[in-house]
Amino acid sequence: MAGQTDMELIKDGIRLDGRKPDELREVKITAGVLDNADGSCYLEWGNNKVYAGVFGPMECHPRHKQKADRAIVQARYTMAPFSVNDRKRPGLDRRSSEISYIASQAFEKVVMVEEFPKASIRVDMQVVEAHAGTRCAAITAASVALADAGIPMRDMIPACASGKVNDIVVLDLNKEEDNYGQADLPLAIIPSTGEVVLLQLDGHLSPEQFEEAMDLATSGCMDLYKIMRDALDKSYGGKK
Amino acid sequence: MSSDSVSNLMKGHMESLAAEGKRADGRSINEFRNVSIETGMINTAEGSALVHLGKTKILCGIKLLIGTPYGDSPGSGTMTTTAELAPLADQSFDPGPPREQSIELARVVDRGIRESRMIDFDALCIEHGEKVWMVFIDLYILDNNGNLFDCCTLAAAAALANAKIPNVQHGVADEDVDLPVTCWPISCTFGKLGDKVILDPTSDEESVMSARFTVAHDENGNLRAAQKGMNGAFTDAEVREAVKTARKSDNVLREALKGI
């Protein structure tokens, strides 16, 4: 969020990639793409490409992380070295660790963890191509993978960002908007209750712009929710 | 399931099948599973390939960056290979730093490509002693159903064949050119199941076999790399026979590679 740029990112209400301010990039979701994982999902969001895989509930390792009265969700977000223009060093860095941690906590709110004391549910999110918005893409994909694994959940959690470019609040930042825009607000919600399970913000927003950004991100989440449900319907809907 | 949960009953079943020259999935003992290769799906990589070998699924991405050459080879580019056993590929893969298993895998693939001089490293020199292209081969195992060695080698070869040198982006030349590839190393991996030697083991077979042997040939039938693994052993005759079998059996993988 440099925010200090003269770069024209939006002109006459049309963004560099041709979208309107309140328009999502194209999202394609396929459930059940991996054979070994108990549940899996492949998601393309614009040029972002993410695989998610779920194992569990299973015995929790390491043992000291077990909870006597519930399961824990061990989410892990990683980016492939070739997913960005400059090769990323393999493995967990501080950014990936933070995203993994807040995603784990978001999932623990919707997964019925109280049903599986001492167990672990492993959620793995692998970004193989990144063009801004990968944490939202990863969490959305992982939600579908959890459902694909048949793990009891209260709801799925779609995640979508809004932000600000050239003083205009927009939905779902692309790479240029993420690099040169003024604010970025990734949000994940529980659609059935409207509760917020993940929210981050960096940049600069006025109170009015924040209200607008929340509305926009929420509506983006609801649009995504439909695509997620359609993907599951396609895999499990049966005869129509 | 590639864990230790395959019972002794299963072990007995697979060994008796192998003794009759049969496999649990209906293949003969020297037959590869179906293979398919797609390339160029990752836009941020200079080359990429997604390979299915049966239900094993591996994504390989190639990155090329400019760096300084090693002192002992000032006129040659460099190459680094990593293999990530992504936890989503197998319940037994733990998150965390690379283990011996993934390091062995990456090194065997690396040797097959490096020692065959599949990549013309001298052509990757930009400025003698100062600037060369560094080739990074990163392998992502997405689904493990056995024989990661051959699937990784194939994915790396396909991704290298798909790779372009990003001259324009780095201001080296006016156009991007194909990465100079000189030959096609292909590996064949065998497992010892009871008294029999089988090609292209699945993870069920890997969990009951006692020893593993991988050999890589170039397209002229010359050996380029080999590795024996696991705590069992092969007889001298079995090793020699496997090398001969590999020369015949790798054709199906070569054909798939030519088709990209």
Automatic annotation (TrEMBL), chain A:
GO molecular function: RNA binding; RNA exonuclease activity, producing 5'-phosphomonoesters
Subunit record text: Component of the archaeal exosome complex. Forms a hexameric ring-like arrangement composed of 3 Rrp41-Rrp42 heterodimers. The hexameric ring associates with a trimer of Rrp4 and/or Csl4 subunits.
InterPro entries attached to this UniProt entry: ExoRNase_PH_dom1, ExoRNase_PH_dom2, ExoRNase_PH_dom2_sf, PNPase/RNase_PH_dom_sf, Ribosomal_Su5_D2-typ_SF, RNase_PH, Rrp41
UniProt entry tagged with the keyword Cytoplasm: yes
Record-annotated Exoribonuclease phosphorolytic domain positions: 23-152, 155-219
Pfam families, A to Z: RNase_PH (PF01138), RNase_PH_C (PF03725)
Described purpose of this protein according to its UniProt entry: Catalytic component of the exosome, which is a complex involved in RNA degradation. Has 3'->5' exoribonuclease activity. Can also synthesize heteromeric RNA-tails.
Residue ranges of the TM segments: none
Keywords, sorted A to Z: Cytoplasm, Exonuclease, Exosome, Hydrolase, Nuclease
Localization per record: Cytoplasm
GO cellular component, one term: cytoplasmic exosome (RNase complex)
Protein's UniProt name: Exosome complex exonuclease Rrp41
A Gene Ontology biological process term: rRNA catabolic process
Family: Belongs to the RNase PH family.
NCBIfam families: ECX1 (TIGR02065)
Keyword Repressor tagged: no
Organism: Marine Group III euryarchaeote CG-Epi3
